[in-house]
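Marked as duplicate of an earlier ticket. Keeping the data here for the record.
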Amino acid sequence: MSAPIEPDHLVAKLRFRHLRLLREVQARGSLRAASQALNLTQPALSKALTEIENAFGFALFLRTARGLTLTAQGEVVLRGANLLLEELGHLRTEAAAADRYAASVRIGAPPFVAQTYLPGVIARLVQGETPVRVQLREDRVPALILALRRGELDALITTFPLRMLESEADAFQYIKLFEVQFAVVAAAGHPLVRSRRVDWTRLSREKWVMPAEGSMGRKLIEDCFTHAGVPVPLPVIESTSPTTSVQFVAASLGIGIVPDVALLQHSALQAGSVKQIRVMPEPPSSVVALIFREGPFSPRIALLKEALGLE
């Protein structure tokens, strides 16, 4: 089963139902459970699985007393199968709306990018010569990267840690867009606003409004305190939205840290109710990039690049 398999051979032998079968077997962990979910007999499912493995030329699952587990090759095939199934579903949705929109672009972004930078990008997308429909998902960066891996999104516009993707570096393309500098902020009347220099030891004694635990923003704050050698304070308020956090800060409920791109466009800052605290050392800057999967030419990515001024 080790002879090279030509792509045409797979096209002739495989069907989309085979991809769904593989996904069910992997999810259920046994032929018995998968056959019940697929409304097939166990022998019929076993035969189909053998045919699929013969088509690829190698085993996709290890058969054990405890059930089925993916081989290394099987993990790669299942990842591709999930991408194809997701793309098929999106293709159906896109085709159904083809009389109104030429394409449907799925973008993922963390809230601060979505609320401050993306409105202009999306305006160029939907107001261009090509009629485009946009689906935007706002979420934390780890969840967005997972959605991109699964094929649920076409591209991300986001900050990201390279270590989250380094194991799959060849599977994605990255294009740097800009850098953001994070700022520590407080209500205008807070005494620290008038200080020329504030260190992280002093900030550790304040009430904090922080991003949700596990988010990129929260990790950035925690790293600042850790590098300063002081304990990370427990926030009095956690919020997933930087703009909402600024409202809490403006209400004197705590100090916070937000991307300066959000501050520059936020009404609370414009009204003078929130001010930046001069912190030393400053929080590190972060790169915002366009991230998308490697692969054949994608008209959706081309449209997004054009809206971003990359083409």
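See parent ticket for discussion. Residues 187 and 292 are 39 Å apart (CA to CA).
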